[in-house]
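Task 17 of the worksheet. Students: predict the tertiary structure of the chain below and write it out as structure tokens. Keep your answer in the requested format; marks are given for formatting as well as content.
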Amino acid sequence: MTTPAGHCFRVLGLLSGTSVDGIDVAVAEIRDDNGTVVLTPLGELDVPYPPDLRADLLDALPPRPSSARQLTVLDTRVGQAFADAAARGIAAYGPVDVIASLGQTVYHWVENGVALGTLQLGQPAWIAERTGVPVIADLRIRDITAGGQGAPLASTLDAMWLRGLAEETGRPVAALNLGGIANITVVTQSDKVLAYDTGPANALLDLAAAHVSDGKLSADVDGRLALAGSVREDLLDRLLADPYFAAAPPKSTGKEHFHGGYLDAALSGLPPLSPEDLLATLTELTAATVAAECRRHGVATVVASGGGVANPATMAALARLLPDGALRTSDDLGLPGSGKEAYLTALLGWLSWCGVPATLPSATGASGPRLLGALTPGAAPLNLPAPLGGAATRLRVAESGQSR
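Model answer:
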């Protein structure tokens, strides 16, 4: 099929982050306008996991052991949950041409700073069967096979979206995602983009909230515990001594490093902490490690998104440690922060669907840009568009009704 210049595809993006709290869904219209990608957000949903599925997923994460049977069962159950979420997105925002799924990461294999493999659950055939729409999934592994980290893939959207702001201000801009893990993309006026995981964000906070509440809390809602506490410098110093923070980028991490056993080891031998002080200290860890990396790159503007933006304690700590006026949110720039990663997934799927490499080697460390993903057909025979040719270098977020 030959795709007319500027033809608009409707793409649905799906993922579940390292917080393992549910499935993010976003639907967008995306088209090319002479090398500028125009993305129109049509709407997003947050679909919580059923409590029993979330519990079983958490039980399979490191450092707990897991079996082939356990992972097979979860792959099916997560795939079915993703299929249900996709169907809800289509019912809410209309039919789509293609679905992109980042799945649920359960293990990201890194040794000595080198990413060797990655495992995302959520069998895409369930999504294709339920919706009849072709699905692009398994989006990380191709970058890893090319020597990259397979993360953070947000660098693709961030670089295209924020380069204009870096040019306007003449200073580096950082996109910050506060999910289970915090990651930044540093965008400058040049083509070189740096992106990497800075360390934990919600991952340790959620673990600590569950621990101090005997499982009654899954998160420090509204940062209430952290805001009522004080930073314990002895614990913070011990946490900041982790070699991960001093390692040079590109680098990536996850719950296989920042897990319950990690937190227990950090607390071992220290005088007792109140729940409030523990959460305040872990919040400070996130803010301090993010701010240190932003200072290292001379960042003047930080554009934050992800679940952590809803935590006033985290945002207050960041605002205190970053230069005055530096902290903004993606909503301020027109991209809904609650659905940003799902819109990213939609963008990655669109790029692959149109034959455009979707990685930035300077960000992931790969030997070159790569087309991403594996394609599962929908109900009809595949009818791929002709490759766009060239590379998309800019992204404009349009208001609904202004995409054409």
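Marker's comment: The chain is about 35% helix and 25% strand. The mean pLDDT is 93.
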